[in-house]
Amino acid sequence: MPTQPMEARASQRYIIMSHRKLRRVINTIRGKKVTEAYHILRFMSYDAAPVVLKKLIEAVSNAQAKFKLENVDQLFVSQVFVDEGPAYRRFKPRAQGRIYRREKPTAHLTIAVQVKEAKVEGSQRGTKG
What is the rounded distance in angstroms from the CA atom of residue 22 to the CA atom of residue 46? Predict the structure, then answer.
């Protein structure tokens, strides 16, 4: 019977930023340890990095509160994904009574961190010895 993984999440919706810009950042931290992901995001020069870093810190804080963890070294980024949100539409008047539409894209970000458990060696059936 499989046990439920110890996982904590943090999400933010309607970030006024393109989902492509956020995906470029989250693809670098997927599957890494939390401390390593923190250092990568801290020194990354993209505008999306502080947004993702803030959510990573929030997910770690949620995990510490939920599972009463003292050591953050046990955590790793198990899931991180960005979905496209609705676009805000803004209009700008132009020459000769025309109008130009400007769309500001939004995105929804979700980060999940999980406790990496030590592997327990089970009994070895069918071996001679």
Answer: 9
Q: Tens of pLDDT along 4-45? A: 788 999 999 999 999 999 999 999 999 999 999 999 999 999
Interatomic CA distance for residues 119 and 48, integer angstroms:
35
pTM above 0.85, yes or no: no
Query: Domains of the chain by range and CATH?
Result: 7-115 (3.90.470.10)
Measuring CA to CA, which residue among 8, 6, 28, 26 is closest to residue 116? Answer: 6
Q: What angle do CA 106, 110, 116 make, to 5 degrees?
A: 160
In this prediction, residue 127 has a pLDDT band, given cuts at 50, 70 and 90, of low
The Cα–Cα gap between 112 and 41 comes to 16
